[in-house]
Structure formats: structure tokens, C-alpha cells
Specification:
mainly alpha, Bacterial polysaccharide co-polymerase-like, Helix Hairpins, 3 domains, four-stranded antiparallel β-sheet
Length: about 475
């Protein structure tokens, strides 16, 4: 269909289209005038993004969209609607109860029935750019609409606080019992540690262990030094008991031995002189030999005495070494025992620390849950209070008129085309070609048109000219 055909159909059927438009407009405006006026009151609340003073939990600069959706679902829930009914005491109204019996036959509860009724006129819309949520209620009475909007916001605030406080009370009871168990565990661990310290006589295990370790180190150093001395005395004792005992430093440096050896040397020299002059059988020679033999005996005795002292010193050093080694082993065993006792004490002390840490943690959670259970504020606050609207929100006469004009125009055009399809007429040259399948040679002007008058004048002139000829 061309635009010309469309215009031709509208020109031919304009009366029908206009009638449909007027009828639509009249029907819509009649319904608009008959419909009761509805008033919409709007209240709002805001979700606070500041940290919670009890739990120190922050929601950030913008609340999570899922959190906002949850708040919308809460305010549209049956729990909030039924709280509104109870707060307004509508369930106690005899007229309301009578309406409930007529509507439900006495089945269910008045609170549920009224809550579902209120929810149908409730509109909750969260803001896209902020943490504000608008709560609107539509009713015939503007005061009733404002009252219901404010009641829903207040019921929502009470419900949010209740949802926060009730779990906190349950957690508080749970952590209270856990705190008692943790305290009992801590007391048992502390008693066990105190009994162990009292049994072992531990006052300051680390200081005492340091002293014993120092003593162990000192004994070890003494043993090493004494072993060196004992080793030296053993070698000297071996030299003293051998053939070279007379060449020991103690023997050589001894003044008695030195004096005896000097006397022996002088006596030997004297013997040689006297023996050379008097002979071996002379009494002086015999006397000198006896003196020399006596001096040698004295030197040997003194040497044995000196080397015997070296043996005694070696024996004493060996005995001291054995004694010191025994003391060292005893001290080592004592230190090991003290370390074992200290390790056992550390284990018990660690049990006390763990029990104390667990008790502190549970006590902190108990304190937090106790504060939450006593909270009277939540992170949601009322922002604006609904007031009775002055102008009705519906019906909107001007908007309905515009819609009626637009819809009536469409319906009129549609009716014109339906009429044209049921009673098809030739409106344009294209319709002739499409219907008969032949080409159009010319088009006659409409009677009374300017072109028709011009054609008639031209025909008359031709007839006059023909007669004159």
C-alpha cells in the first residue's frame, strides 16, 4: 500500500475514524470521572554507611545492591505487614473483623488478611544513586495513605532492629555457656600448673637453670684443666719410676741432692788422690770409699723420696679428676632433669596461656553479643515522614485524555482499514491497475472541477469552428 492509497482510504473513511476517536475519548473520560480518587503518600528511610558502634562493621561508601534488595524484600514481607496491623490495632476493630469474615468466611487470621490487602497498595522503590528507599502507599483517604506509609516504615525499622537483636540474644546465651566452660578449663589448667610448681619447688625455673648451667660449664672447664694437669703428672710419674728418674727436674733442682752430689764429687776426687799416694788398702782409702758409698745411698734415697712425691701428686690428680668427673656427671644429670621439669612446666604454662586466650576470645564475643542484644538502634533510620497529599495521584485526567486521543486515533485508523477491507473500493489509479491488470491511459477529472470546465470550453470552441467551416 502506497502513501497515496493510505491517504485516500482515510479521506473516504474519515467519518468512521472520527466516530471511533470520539467514542474512545468519551469512554475513557467517563471511566476517569467515575473512578474514585486515589491519594499516594510517600515516606523514606536511609541505610547508614557508617561503622556499627557495637560490631565495628562498615558497609562502605555504598551499600551492596544485594543488601538493598534484601531491605526491600523485608519491608514487603508478611512480618512487617502484620506488625503494621498490630501497631494500628486494626485486628481489634469490629468492623474490620466483620469484613474479614465476609471476605474469607472466618478462615485464616485477620492480621494475614489485612497484611495481604495492605501489600497490594504498597510500593517500595530503592534509589539507584544513593542508600535511600522510598515507601509509597495508595488509598482513597489521604490521611489513611500517609498513616499506612509511616506505619510501614516504623514497622520495618522495628523489624530490622528485632532481626539484629534476636540473633544477638541467642549468641549471647551461647557464648555465656562457652565462657563458663572456658573459665573452668582455665582454672583447671592454672591449678595443675600451680600444683606442679609446688611439687617441684619451682620459683623461677629460668634463673635457676641459668645458674646450674653456669655451674656445669665451670665444672667442665675445671675438668679439662685438671685432665691436662693429670696427664702431665702421669708422664712425670712414668719418668720418675723409670731409669731416668735421677734426671728429673725436681731431682736436679733439689738442694739436698745437689749438696750430696757435690760432697760425692769432692769425696771421689779425694779418693783418687789418696789412692794414688797410699794405695787401696790404706785405712784412709777405705774410709773414703765407705763415705762415697754412704753418699750414693743418701742420693738414691733422696731421689726416691722426690720421685715418690711425683707419684703421690699423680695419684692425687687422678683422684681429683675422678671426683670432678663424677661431680660433672651429677651436675649434667641435674641440669637435664631441670630442663625436663622446665619443659613440663612450659607445656602446662602453655596450656594455661591457650586456655586464657580462648577465654578472652569467648569473653570478647560475649561482650559484643551482649551489647548487640541490648541495642536500640540499627543502621537504618527514617528519613522523611509521609504527610497527607493535597492532590490525588489517580486518576490523571489530562494523561488519560492524551492516552485516549492517541489510542482512539489508532483505533479509528484501524476501524477505517477494517471497513475498507470488508468493502473494497477503487480509490486511486493504482487500484485500477492492481484490480484489472491493465494500464491506465488517462484520467477523467471530477465533475465540477476546474479541469472539467476547461475541457467543456475547449469542446464548445471546436463545435463552433466546425459549424463555421
Amino acid at each position: 500500500m502506497t502513501f497515496g492509497q493510505f491517504i485516500a482510504i482515510l479521506q473516504a473513511r474519515w467519518k468512521l475514524a472520527m466516530a471511533v476517536l470520539i467514542a474512545t475519548l468519551l469512554v475513557v473520560m467517563g471511566i476517569t470521572l467515575v473512578m474514585p480518587k486515589q491519594y499516594t503518600a510517600t515516606a523514606s528511610f536511609v541505610v547508614d554507611a557508617k561503622p556499627d558502634p557495637y560490631s565495628a562493621m562498615s558497609y562502605g561508601t555504598m551499600v551492596n545492591p544485594s543488601f538493598m534488595t534484601t531491605q526491600v524484600d523485608i519491608i514487603q514481607s508478611d512480618r512487617v505487614a502484620q506488625r503494621v496491623v498490630r501497631s494500628l490495632k486494626l485486628n481489634e476493630n469490629p468492623q474490620v473483623r466483620e469484613q474479614w469474615r465476609e471476605a474469607t468466611g472466618g478462615q485464616g487470621s485477620v492480621e494475614s488478611w489485612l497484611g495481604e490487602t495492605f501489600q497490594k497498595s504498597l510500593d517500595v522503590r530503592p534509589s539507584r544513586e544513593s542508600n535511600v528507599v522510598s515507601v509509597s502507599y495508595k488509598a482513597v483517604d489521604p490521611k489513611f495513605a500517609a498513616g499506612l506509609a509511616n506505619a510501614f516504615v516504623q514497622a520495618y525499622l522495628d523489624t530490622v532492629l528485632e532481626l539484629k537483636v534476636d540473633p544477638a540474644k541467642q549468641y549471647s546465651s551461647f557464648f555465656d555457656s562457652r565462657a563458663k566452660d572456658a573459665r573452668n578449663t582455665l582454672e583447671a589448667a592454672q591449678i595443675k600448673l600451680s600444683a606442679f610448681q609446688r611439687e617441684k619447688g619451682i620459683i623461677n625455673a629460668d634463673e635457676r637453670l641459668d645458674i646450674e648451667n653456669a655451674r656445669l660449664s665451670e665444672l667442665s672447664s675445671q675438668l679439662v684443666a685438671l685432665q691436662a694437669i693429670a696427664s702431665e703428672s702421669s708422664s712425670r710419674n712414668a719418668q720418675a719410676t723409670g731409669a731416668s728418674g735421677d734426671r728429673m727436674q725436681e731431682v736436679l733442682n733439689n738442694p739436698i741432692v745437689g749438696s750430696l752430689k757435690a760432697d760425692l764429687s769432692r769425696a771421689e776426687v779425694r779418693l783418687q788422690e789418696v789412692n794414688a799416694r797410699l794405695g787401696e788398702s790404706h785405712p784412709q782409702v777405705m774410709e773414703l770409699k765407705a763415705n762415697i758409698a754412704e753418699l750414693r745411698i743418701k742420693i738414691a734415697e733422696e731421689t726416691r723420696r722426690i720421685t715418690g712425691g711425683v707419684g703421690v701428686t699423680n695419684a692425687i690428680n687422678r683422684q681429683r679428676e675422678s671426683q670432678l668427673r663424677a661431680e660433672l656427671e651429677a651436675q649434667r644429670a641435674k641440669v637435664l632433669q631441670m630442663k625436663q621439669v622446665r619443659d613440663e612446666g612450659i607445656v602446662l604454662a602453655r596450656d594455661v596461656e591457650n586456655a586464657q586466650r580462648a577465654y578472652d576470645s569467648v569473653q570478647a564475643r560475649l561482650t559484643q553479643s551482649s551489647l548487640d542484644s541490648q541495642s536500640t538502634q540499627s543502621n537504618v533510620s527514617a528519613l522523611t515522614v509521609a504527610s497527607p497529599p493535597l492532590e490525588p495521584s489517580s486518576p490523571r485526567t489530562f494523561l488519560n485524555a492524551l492516552i485516549a486521543v492517541f489510542g482512539g486515533t489508532l483505533l479509528g485508523v484501524l476501524a477505517a482499514f477494517i471497513r475498507e477491507v470488508s468493502d473494497r473500493r477503487i480509490r486511486t489509479v493504482e487500484d485500477i491497475s492492481a484490480s484489472l491488470g491493465i494500464a491506465v491511459i488517462g484520467v477523467m477529472p471530477k465533475p465540477g472541477s476546474a479541469k472539467s470546465g476547461q475541457l467543456a470550453t475547449a469542446a464548445a470552441q471546436r463545435r463552433v469552428i466546425g459549424h463555421s467551416a
